[in-house]
Amino acid sequence: MSAAPLILGIESSCDETGVGIVRGTELLANTVSTSMEQHVRFGGVIPEIAARAHLETMIPTLQQALDTAGVSLDDVDALAVTSGPGLSGALMVGVAAAKALAAATGKPLYAINHLVAHVGVGVLDGGELPENLGALLVSGGHTEILKVNELTSDVELLGQTIDDAAGEAYDKVARLLGLGYPGGPAVDRIAKEGNPKAIRFPRGLTMPKFVGTADAPGKHRYDFSFSGLKTAVARSVEQYQAKGLEVPVADIAASFQEAVVDVVTKKAVMACTEHGLTSLLLGGGVAANSRLRELLAARCASAGITLRVPKPSLCTDNGAMIAALASQVVSAGVAPTGLGFATDPGQPVTQISLTA
Amino acid sequence: MKPVTDSPLWTREIESIDAETTQALAARIAGALGPGDLILLSGELGAGKTTFTQGLGEGLGVRGGIISPTFVLARVHPALADGPDLVHVDAYRLGSSGEIDDIDLEATMPTSVTVIEWGRGKAEHLADSYLEIHLLRATGDDEAGEEIIIDFEETDEDDPRVLRISGYGPRWADPALLGL
Q1: Does the ipTM surpass 0.85?
Q2: Which CATH superfamily is domain B24-141+161-171 in?
Q3: Which of A57, A158, A231, B37 could make a disulfide contact with A145, Cβ separation 3.0–4.6 Å?
Q4: In chain B, what are the domain boundaries?
Q5: Which family is it part of (chain B) (predicted)?
């Protein structure tokens, strides 16, 4: 094996079928096929539909990635696949495909953590990851703050949502406001026309009893809650409707978005400051949100934290991130997982690659 | 299986002053539950359905991390000791009882307590007996006539709910079973 291993990564944890190919930290192919359109009428991802779509698109996506990279399966040094966290049925398709490829080619197979891969993808855009790194992951299914002690062996969960994920709150609020699915881009778009200070929506888990102090942290110091915010938006909409008034959709959208972005950025920066983290990587689909990027950049700058945001095609779910993390895992000398593993829909961030 | 009757055998209302009280009530209800039991949870967005389920999970002694299942539709929380697993389902995005059948709850029901948020009208056919728990919160309608509220900031004030519990089918003939 040469110094920079050639890795093929497969991702199928949600509604994106992704196959990526990297050589070390160099991106050679990042092919993604999404079944998003098929989920629109359900207002969210339906796992069985996603799984079926993965089945249909897996082979063409794989073929296209190989063509784009100009390599053959024979050239690949190792295979990698998302084993979790994610939707059970969706994960199974990617894992079955990866195991079949490994069995057919005899190549080593690595089972990779989807969330840590959102961090590992950083090496493809801007090179090696800095020391003292934190990560903020925000997507339809996830809202987490991570402390990356060692990318391939030691990642800690500092905070997460205790009810809805941020992207899920966007979907629910978009539905309350009649904006359609997916909610993130729809709310972000109309929020630009509204006043973010028109309505003061709750910032979940920011009261002293939850936050505590740096020395005596409360139970939910770095955790998020978007359920109360969603309730407040529902009550806000209902009171206009009950009075026969027009619902100020743009103002509600802008004020809701401000509440989400305010609490997410504040807690992420606080977690970094209190854990001596001098760099922060932003990942996940909601990283595309314009207001989130803007406020996070401003607050990181004030706190002296270097913010790193990979390009959008690497922030949303993709196979290149699985290959990128696997490449680091291979280079660190970690043994392959082999074929004897199962999907883990709730795989914790402490399991970066599964051991055989 | 079709429920024996479409009207409840009994209904009880319990007031809860805050989320902790709701969870404590749920934990007590959990004490009366066993494998195969079905609970339909209803109530508006934000009424506290997931909060209630967190208390239920605590009472059943299953693996924690109970968060909204809207995104994944269904999540299994395995028992930490002897006892049933908890299967936490959100039917909000599902259109009909046929789509409920698609997620194959029948495979897990015999060994689990199954809780279905927004299950009313879609999931009754899964068991011949079930509990319905309807959570009621103050809605924006109740604020009609007053000024438009524009400050919803998180406060220490209590956020009361009413739990309306109804029993359906032979399993729940006697409300005293719940021990409330």
Answers
A1: no
A2: P-loop containing nucleotide triphosphate hydrolases (3.40.50.300)
A3: A158
A4: 24-141+161-171
A5: Belongs to the TsaE family.
Q: What was the pLDDT predicted at A1?
A: 46
Name the closest residue on chain B to residue A13, using Cα atoms. Answer: B72
Q: Which residues of A are annotated as a binding site?
A: 114, 118, 137-141, 171, 184, 188, 289, 317
- Preceding amide of A130 cis, omega within 30: no
What the block records as the tokens of A239 is 């009171």
Instruction: Name the residue facing B67 among A45, A140, A163 (closest C-beta).
Output: A163
Q: In what order do the strands lie in the sheet with B112-117?
A: B10-16, B161-168, B130-136, B38-42, B112-117, B85-90, B74-77
Q: What pLDDT score was predicted for residue A345?
A: 87
CB B39 within 8 A of CB B116: yes
Decide if B152 and A200 are in contact by the 8 Å CB cutoff. yes
**Residues in chain A, how many?**
356
Query: Does residue A54 surpass a pLDDT of 70?
Result: yes
What is the C-alpha separation between A300 and A310, in angstroms, rounded?
Answer: 16
Determine contact, residues B82/A264, Cβ cutoff 8 Å: no
From CA A276, how far away is CA A335, in angstroms rounded? Answer: 31
Could you say which DSSP state residue A250 is in? H
The pTM score is 0.88
Residues A48 and A55: beta-carbon distance below 8 Å: no
Q: Which residues pair with A279 in a beta bridge?
A: A133, A306
Q: Which residues pair with B156 in a beta bridge?
A: none
Angle at A226 between CA A203 and CA A11, to 5 degrees: 130
- pLDDT tens sequence across A156-212: 999 999 888 898 899 999 999 999 888 999 999 999 999 999 999 999 999 998 999
Query: B141 and A46 in contact by Cβ < 8 A?
Result: no
Contact B67 A161 (CB under 8 A): yes
- Mutant choice from A227, A260, A347, A350 vs B, greatest count of B C-beta within 10 A: A227
Provide the token pair at B13.
């209302």
Interface probe, candidates B18, B71, B73, chain A, greatest A C-beta count within 10 A: B71
* Residue B136 touches chain A, beta carbons under 8 Å: no
First to last CA, chain A: 21
CA dihedral A67, A68, A74, A75 (to 10 degrees): 150
Q: Is A124 helix (H, G, I), strand (E, B) or coil?
A: helix
